[in-house]
């Protein structure tokens, strides 16, 4: 079983939609959590860190639930430019990534 | 800062050949790692290092060797390439300073094909 499990999708949504991604992690000792964005044939880049108190960056909101060992990413008002693969990470372990396509 | 650099960008090998993928970072990061990315499998950790002279195995270390003689460089060696090692390889680095965010910075990747 992978340390970080993520729904691979794909998610196909219209512009303006709200979409949510979830990941679960198995190592209860994991300390730091992140969401990365990866565009086609490019390297992953940090989207945002995830804190227990939850954090928001514009249209993006990340949450961490330590009791249930999952992290989530909410994207509001989706844009065409949000189309990418989103990877969750717990410490140095990554989920498989969720492919998002936002359509006009 | 160049960040994390990787060479080569593309490589084609024949089964049984050996080669070294190069990785360097100029951010004075203690932690460096190698991942491979295959369709549907996400990023899988091959080897990692928490500082010069220290390396350890990740999830999928078989067939790969690493060394960390300096803080900046972390080469990955394929000893005898196999078709199963066809993949995209990413090197990454981060700080272990608990006062700083330890997000990982990735290199641009090496696309390896083993025939």
- Global morphology of chain A: globular
Give the ordered list of helices and strands of chain B.
Answer: EEEEEEEEEEE
- The N- and C-terminal alpha carbons of chain A lie at a distance of 37 Å
Low-confidence stretches of chain A: none
How many beta strands in the DSSP annotation of chain A? 11
Work out the oligomeric state of the chains in this entry.
Answer: heterodimer
Portion in helices of chain B: under 10%
N-to-C series of helices and strands of chain A: EEEEEEEEEEE
Q: Number of helix segments of chain B?
A: 0
Q: How large is the count of helical segments of chain A?
A: 0
List the helices and strands and how they pair.
The complex is a heterodimer of chains A (104) and B (115).
Chain A: E1 4-6, E2 11-14, E3 19-25, E4 33-38, E5 45-50, E6 55-57, E7 60-65, E8 70-75, E9 84-90, E10 93-94, E11 98-103
Parallel strand pairs in A: 2-11
Antiparallel strand pairs in A: 1-3, 3-8, 4-5, 4-9, 6-7, 7-8, 9-10, 9-11
Chain B: E1 4-7, E2 10-13, E3 19-25, E4 31-38, E5 42-51, E6 54-57, E7 64-66, E8 76-78, E9 87-94, E10 105-106, E11 110-114
Parallel strand pairs in B: 2-11
Antiparallel strand pairs in B: 1-3, 3-8, 4-5, 4-9, 5-6, 7-8, 9-10, 9-11
């Amino acid at each position: 079983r992978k340390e970080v499990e993520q729904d691979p999708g794909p998610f196909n949504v219209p512009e303006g939609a709200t979409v949510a991604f979830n990941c679960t992690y198995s190592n209860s000792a994991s300390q730091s959590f992140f969401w990365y964005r990866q565009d086609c044939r490019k390297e992953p880049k940090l989207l945002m860190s995830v804190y227990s108190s939850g954090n928001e960056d514009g249209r993006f909101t990340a949450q961490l639930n330590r009791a249930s060992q999952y992290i989530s990413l909410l994207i509001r008002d989706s844009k065409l430019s949000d189309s990418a693969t989103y990877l969750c990470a717990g410490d140095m372990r990554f989920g498989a990534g969720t492919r998002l396509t936002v359509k006009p | 800062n160049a960040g994390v650099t990787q060479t080569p960008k593309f490589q084609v090998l024949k089964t049984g050949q050996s080669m070294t993928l190069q990785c360097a970072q100029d951010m004075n990061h203690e932690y460096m790692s190698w991942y491979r990315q295959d369709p549907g499998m996400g990023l899988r950790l091959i080897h990692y290092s928490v500082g010069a002279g220290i390396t350890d195995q990740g999830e999928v270390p078989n067939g790969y060797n690493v060394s960390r003689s300096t803080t900046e460089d972390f080469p990955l060696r394929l000893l005898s390439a196999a078709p199963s090692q066809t993949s995209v390889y990413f090197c990454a680095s981060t700080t272990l300073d608990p006062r700083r965010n330890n997000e990982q910075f990735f290199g641009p990747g090496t696309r390896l094909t083993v025939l």
